[in-house]
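Hi there,

I know you've been waiting on this one. I reran it after we fixed the sequence typo, so this is the corrected version. Both the input and the resulting structure follow.
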Amino acid sequence: MNLILVADSFRPSNSSAAVQLNDLSDELVKKGHDVNVITFTDNKEHIRNSIFKENGMTIIRIYRPSIKNKNYFKRAIIEFISPYKIIKFLKKSDNYFTRIDGIIWYSPSIFFGVLIRYLKKKFKCPSYLILRDHFPDWAVDLGLMSKGPHYWFFKAIESYQFYVADVIGVQSEGNISHVKFWEKNNLRKVEVLNNWISDEKNIGCSIDINKTKLSGRKIFLYAGNMGVAQNPEVLVEIAKKFKNNKNLGFLFVGRGEYAKRIRNDIKKYKLDNCETFSEIKYDEIPGLYSQCHVGMLSLNFSHKSHNIPGKFISYISSGLPVLAIVNKNNDLIKIINENNIGQVITEKNIHDSKKLVQNFINNIDRNMSDRCKKLKDAQFSSNSASEHILKALSP
C-alpha cells in the first residue's frame, strides 16, 4: 500500500507521539509498504519546507513556528492554520503523489480534519484516526477552560475530525464512550488501538546515576513531559515521605511547564533523595532505564478520560515495574493490577501512599520485570499496531 501519515511531530522530536509514529512508520516500511510522512518543523533553515528520504520513507516537513511555551490562544491559532499550509504546499506539488491507498493521522492535534478531507477527496481512499487526545474536554476537567463559546468551537473542530475518519482507534475500552455518538449510531467504526513501542538497543546514556548523590540506591524514575495533565508534583510528595530512607532515590528527567516547579520543590524541601535532569535524546532512554528499578507516572486526578501514557509502555518494555498515580476508574488500573506489574495509587488511597509504596518495594522481584516485558510483547508491540491499522485500511 502507498500510505500517508500525518502527524504534529515526528523524529527527531523526543515526544511520545513522535517516537510512536516513528516506530509505526518503520514497521510499515519493514512490511513492504510505501510511507509518506507529513509533519512540521520549527527550524528556520527549513522555512521553505523540505522533502527527503530517510529509513525507507519519504518525509515532508512543513515549516511553522514552535508551539512550545505558547499561550493557549497563540497555540490554537498556529494549529488552526497548519493544515491549510500543508494543503497549499501539496497543491503546489500537485503531481508528487500519484496514488495513495490509505491515510493515517494522529490526534493531537484536533485540527487535521480539513487536510484529511482534502486528501480523501483527492485520492478516494480510507482514513484511520489514531485518537489519543480528548481536547477540549480534558481542559474542562482540569479547570483550564469553561464550557463557553471557545469550548464549543473546539468541540466542532473535534467532531469534524471524527466525521472525516473511516475508523477511529482509541487507546482503551474506557475511551470508546468519548465517541459514543459515532459508535452507537454506526456512523464510524470505533475500535481499541493499543499504544505501542519498538525494542531499542542500549547505547548508553549521558546521565550516570553512579556519579550522582543517588548512587547505590534503588531508583524510582519519572521520564517525560511535566505539565498540568501529568501533575508530577504528587510524585515529589511521595519522595518527601521517604526523605530519610537512604535506600531509595527519585529521579526526574524531562521537560515541561512543571519542570522548574519540580526543581524548586526539591530545593525547598531539601530532598537529598531526589535529582533532576533536562530532557535527553530518545536513543539514550534505554541506557537510562537500565540504571533504574521502577518507572513512575502520574495523571491529574481531575481527568475523566482514560490515558495509557507512552511512558508506561516504554517502562514495561525495559522491564521496569510501574508506580502509577492516576485518576479513578482509569483503564490503566486494571492493566497493572491484573498483570501484577506494579502499584496503583488513586486519590482515594493517596493518604496511604507511603505504606503502599513500601509494600510495593518489598514485593518487587525478577518475575515482575519478566511480566512487564511479556505484557509489552503481547499487547503493545509496533507490529501489532501496524497489523491492526493495515487491516482496517485494506479493501
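Quick highlight: The first helix runs from residue 16 to 30.

Best,
R. S.
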